[in-house]
Write a structure and sequence with these properties.
With 99 residues, the protein is α+β, with helices and mostly antiparallel strands. The chain is 25% helix and 32% strand.
Length: 99
């Protein structure tokens, strides 16, 4: 098993749909075992722009993490399509053990 982590911003879109939603729906159609989306409280990436609470405690660019669990072969098969959808997103593939 492998765990694919995809780091996005809440404002990332794919054809007017939130990127995380578009990716999850695509992963379902591709027969990937499972995916979970989590919304972060605060974070930053390569641009060193902090994403977190904004005016009045609300923000629309909080970090989003998409976690995908599947075999390495299947994940490597879908990576090119995910990369096309989000070419600047950080994607990390790590070893995982299903228990």
């Amino acid at each position: 098993m492998k765990l694919l982590l995809i780091f996005l911003d809440e404002t990332d879109l794919w054809h007017d749909v939130p990127m995380y939603e578009a990716m999850v729906r695509r992963l379902v159609r591709l027969g990937i075992g499972g995916a979970t989306v989590t919304k972060g409280i605060m974070g930053y990436g390569s641009h060193h722009k902090v994403h977190g609470r904004g005016l009045l405690g609300m923000s629309d660019d909080r970090p989003i993490t998409l976690m995908v669990v599947e075999t390495e072969a299947k994940l490597r098969g879908v990576l090119p399509e995910l990369r096309t959808m989000a070419p600047e997103a950080v994607m990390v593939l790590v070893a995982a053990e299903a228990v």
